[in-house]
Amino acid sequence: MPSAPADALWEISLAAYLRRRTDLPSLALKPLGLLDRYGEVAVGPDHMAFDGEDVPWDKAVRVIVRDLVEVVSDKAMAREAEKIRHLLPPVPGRKWVVDHAMALLGDFAAPRLTKARGGDVVSEVVYRGALGREKTVQCGVFAALLMATWPEVRHSLIATARLHGVEVYGEAVSAAPEAAGHIFSAAPPNQTSAADDEPTLLIPPRPSAADEPTIMLPPQSAPHADDLASSGSAVLPPRQDLWTPAEPRPEG
């Protein structure tokens, strides 16, 4: 596995992995050689590479991290199989290579694409090309699955990028960044970040009673008779038959 940051060139491709992990029949050697840099991911102190496209670190502008499920889908897997077939001429061993390549991709993908989150991968590296124009190199399906399976590769790419002053966007915030030794960056412009867990909703605190605005109402005076009359309420004099003054009682 590569160190973080990379102190030497480390690289792997789909063909290199098949050579290491399977017993190759002789008829598969030629078609497999045509896939030498297919699905490649490389990281070194001076440059990185995806699918045979090298990017010097001094030209890199930013690294974008996404979750695997945003990069690899069932349709992407189907396109990958067709891409491999088109890359290989109809020579003996072609079917063996295609079958084993897709079986390998399926083994990597099966335990991850069935989940809501498959793991962070470096999906894109933006760099300055000729005339200073920004260009983008994207990881392929095999490179993405490899980084999700071996997080050390992603850690090496990110650590080496930061060592060269390259901005890193999209990596989920660690629960204990001090313990991890670094703090992750936010999402790139116009994009949302992908967190490892469910998003946390931050609810602003409610203002205290002292902070709430006080509405001052003017004092209300007792209504006048004229006001009552104008409002439709009649003011009637006391009825004599309902109130009779008490007669004085004789003394003794």
Determine the fraction of residues in helical runs and give it as a percent range: 25-40%
Radius of gyration: 38 Å
Stretches where pLDDT falls below 50 for ≥5 residues? 174-187, 189-215, 225-236
How many DSSP H or I helices? 9
Largest sheet: 4 strands, antiparallel
The outline comes out as globular
SSE ordering: EHHEEEEHHHEEHHEHH
Instruction: Please report the distance between the alpha carbons of the first and last residues.
Output: 125 Å
Portion in strands: 15-25%
> Number of DSSP strands?
8
* Arithmetic mean pLDDT: 75
Q: Structural class given helices, strands, pairing?
A: alpha+beta
Explain how this protein is built:
With 252 residues, the chain is an alpha+beta fold. It is built from 9 helices and 8 strands. The model is unreliable at 174-187, 189-215 and 225-236 (pLDDT under 50).
